[in-house]
Amino acid sequence: MKKHPLTIGLLAVTCMVAAVALAGCPPQEQQAVNDFSIDHEPMPTDADDGTIEIIGSTTLLPISTVWAETYHAANPHVQLNVSGGGSGNGIKAVIDNTTDIGQSSRPITSNEIDLARANNVEAIEHIVGHDGIAPIVHPDNPVVSLSVEQLSDIYAGEVTLWSEVGVPGMSNDRIVVFARDSASGTYESWKELIIQMDGTDKDRDYSPASLKKGSNRDVRQSVADTPSGIGYIGLGYIDDSISTVAVSPAGGRDPVEATVENVRNGSFPASRAMYYYTNGEPTGIVAGFIEWALGSEGQALVAEQGFVPLQ
Predict the structure, then answer these.
(1) Which residues make Cβ contacts (< 8 Å) with residue 187, sequence separation at least 6?
(2) Pairing of strands 101-104, 271-279
(3) Distance (Å) of CA 70 to CA 35, 46, 54, 300
(4) What is the pLDDT of residue 179?
C-alpha cells in the first residue's frame, strides 16, 4: 500500500448507506503502486471486533459499499457503516476526527491540510483506485466528441447553443448544463481538468446557469430526461439511459473515449485517482480492511463496479 502523507484528498451516489451492517445496499474521478497483495481473507479474532465508519464521496460510495458487504461477510465481527455526502464532507470528517475513513474523489487541499494540523490530525492518503469523468448527453443527441476547449466554453457559459459546437439537427437548441454540487470532489475535478483546462486557466469557473445535482445518479437521470442536456459522471455510473461523449485533449488532438483502458493508460483527459483518508497511519481493524481493499480481491471488486483498479 503506497501512502502519501499530506498530499491527500478520492469518483459518485445517493445510495446513502447510513449503517451498513452489511447485507443490504446493492453495489453499482498518477498511477499508484501497491506494496503488498493479499490473496486470503483476514481471519477474525476477538481483537478484530469493532465498527469502521466510512463517509464522503458519492463516486466512491458503490465501491465502498460492495467492499463493506464483502469484507463483513468474511469478517462478521467487523461492522462497516458507509455513507455519502461528498468528498468535502469526507475530508472534513477526518479533520474533525469523527470518522475512521474519509472517502474522496479529489486530493485534499492545502487549506484542509492546515485545518487538520490545527486540530492535531495527520491526514494520510491512500489511493484506492482510479476513475474517469465522462461527459454525457441524451441518447438522441448526435454529438460524438467534444474538445476540452469546447467543454470548457460550455461549462463556463461562453457557448450556450449546440449549433455553436457544430452539432447537426440541434441548431436552435439551448444547452442545458448539469453539474455536481460544490461539496463533490467530481465538481472540483471537472473544474480543474476541463473548465480550467488542466489548471492552465485558473480564472475560469462554472457558469451560474449550470444546474447543480447531489450525485452521479442525479446527473445521469437529469441528462436522460433532457434531450438538450449535458452532464458528467464517473465511469461506474454509465448505462444505456445516456450516451457518452469522447473528449479531444487540449491542442486539437484526436478524441479519446471514456473507457477503463484509456483511464488506465492516462490518455483520457478527465482521469483522476480516488482516495481514502485516515487520521494517521491506520491500525487494527481499519488497517486490515484497507489492506484487503488494496489487495487482489478488493481491486477485483473495483473493476466489477466499472472503475479502474490500481493494477
Answers:
(1) 179, 180, 181, 212
(2) antiparallel
(3) 22, 19, 15, 12
(4) 98
* Partners of 82 in the β-ladder: 54
Query: H or E stretch including 177?
Result: strand 176-180
Eight-class DSSP state of 35: S
Contact 56, 184 (CB under 8 A): no
Pure H helices in the chain:
61-74, 87-95, 110-118, 148-156, 185-190, 216-224, 260-264, 284-294, 296-304
Q: What value does the mean pLDDT take over residues 227-244? A: 96
The single residue listed with the C-alpha cell 490473496 is 39
Which DSSP string do the residues of 238-281 spell out, in sequence order? --TTSEE-EEEPTTTPPPB---HHHHHTT-STTEEEEEEEEESS
Q: What is the pTM of this model?
A: 0.75
Say what angle helices 110-118 and 87-95 make with each other, to 10 degrees. Answer: 30
pLDDT of residue 228: 96
Bond before 193 cis per omega within 30 degrees: no
Under 8 Å between Cβ of 94 and 282: no
Closest CA to 235 of 125, 129, 311: 129
197 backbone φψ class: left, alpha, beta (φ>0; ψ -120 to 50): left
**Domains in the chain, CATH or no CATH each:** 3-131+274-304 (3.40.190.10), 133-271 (3.40.190.10)
Instruction: Enumerate long-range contacts of 281-286, CB under 8 Å, 24 or more apart.
Output: 281/3, 281/124, 282/100, 282/124, 284/47, 284/48, 284/50, 285/48, 285/49, 285/50, 285/52, 285/78, 286/52, 286/100, 286/101
pLDDT tens per residue, range 134-168: 999 999 999 999 999 999 999 999 999 999 999 88
